[in-house]
Each structure stands twice: as C-alpha cells, then as structure tokens.
Design a protein that fits this description.
This protein folds into 2 domains: about 40 residues; about 220 residues, no CATH class. The chain is about 75% helix and about 0% strand. The protein is built from 10 helices and no strands. The longest helix is centred in the C-terminal third of the chain and has 49 residues. The N terminus is likely disordered.
Length: about 260
Amino acid sequence: MLAQPKLFRFCGQTRLLASVVPAFAPARVALSCTYMRTQGPKSWLREKMEAGLRRGFEQAYETVRVDSEKFLAELRIAYGMPIASFQGVYSIEVRQLDDLAARVIRSGMRMAAAEGAGFGLGGLITLVPDLSILAGITLRTLQKLSLIYGFEFSTEEETAELWIAAASAAGVDISRELLEKEVVNRFVPRVIRRIAFQASREAVEKWSGRIIPIASSLIGASLNYYFVRAWGERAKNHFRERHLQVRKRKSQQLQALSIVGNPGG
C-alpha cells in the first residue's frame, strides 16, 4: 500500500520534467507509468537497474582502463613501494598490499558517494546515468586492486580474469571452462549480462528509496558508498587468494632450484 503513493509522486514529477526537457516526452512518461502500474514498481526498477548496469559495464569495458605505468609510478612515489614492475609485489609483505588495497577501496567509495549524491537529486529519473558512472568507478577500483596484487590486464586472458573477478565481486560464479571455450570479446559481454542480472536483483530493494527525489541525494550517496565497499572487499579477497597461490608457487619453485643448484646441501 505504501508503494502506490511513491509511484504516483514519481509519475507526477516525471511529467513535470517532461514539460521542460524534450528528452522526457509525455508519451514515454505515460508508457513508463502505465508499465509501473501494471507490472509493479519493483519489476520496473529492476529492469531499469539491470539495463543501466549492463550498459555501464559495457561502456566501461570499452573505455575505462587504469594506466598501469602511471599507477606503478604512483605506488613507488606516493606509497614508497620498492618495485620496478608489478611482479615485484610478490616480494612485498602481504599486509602492506592489504593496507594499500584498503586505501584504494576507500578512495573509490568516496568518489562513488559524491557521484551518488549529485545524481541522486533527480531520483529515479537519473538512475541509469548514475549506474553507468558507478560501473566505471567500480571497474577502475577493481583494476587497481588487480594490479596491487600483481595481476595485469594487458592480454586477453588477463582481461578475462579481471572480469571473472568482477563476477566474483557481484556474487556470480563463472566457470573457467566457459572461458576456455570462448574468445574474450564474446566471453566478457556474457559475464556483464550475468553481473547486471545478479546485481540488480540484490540492489532493487535498496535503490527503491530513490523513487522520492527529496531523499535521493543522501540515499544515492550511501548506496553507492556501500556498493563499492562490498564489491571492493569481495574483489580484494579474490585477488588476495590468487596472489597467495602464486606466491606459494614461486616459493616452491625457488626451493626446487635451490635443491638442484646445491644437491649436496
């Protein structure tokens, strides 16, 4: 019973915006409001969120890319990490990498919160552009976490691994057998669709508060903040686990070489 007044207020506000903004034509507004009344606000919202996240991550896949050389220089100069390449992180204490990863996540959270507060003033009207920018912020955060733990994304296989991490952060299990059967430019769009479906299903209850623009600024800021925190922590755990596996393998290889080089020792 409480959702209906929110729905009518949203439709009224959207019609008002349509009178001054050509992009929001009255016919489109009427269609959206009719769909919301017949299908329910949550179904409508989930479709909007899924479409927004899908487009956002598709755009991010094509355009968002952390400059690994600049980020490496930043790690050396700003954080004093004595590394010449990202392979050098395997000689750095894991605790130091964890601290740096936490800083990157907090930075992404602050950026997402600021973006959510600005776009949140428009309520659901600005939901899709908001999610597109949020997807870009999230992907940049994941790329930096990947680099911190020693995983670059310069090859197609590395790029696919990055998106497997993104799926893990969204709570989607992607089999590596699927990756082996597909080329990256077909694999990534399929992963994005599954990410968008899962993320929209989990977030629709939280984002439904943005139907009321008056409260949307604060709600948008807090939701974006916790969205990046949750995804960042899950991705951090994913990369950390892989990092420890590689570190263990490197240690075993060094031990084996030591034995070969000094058989009598």
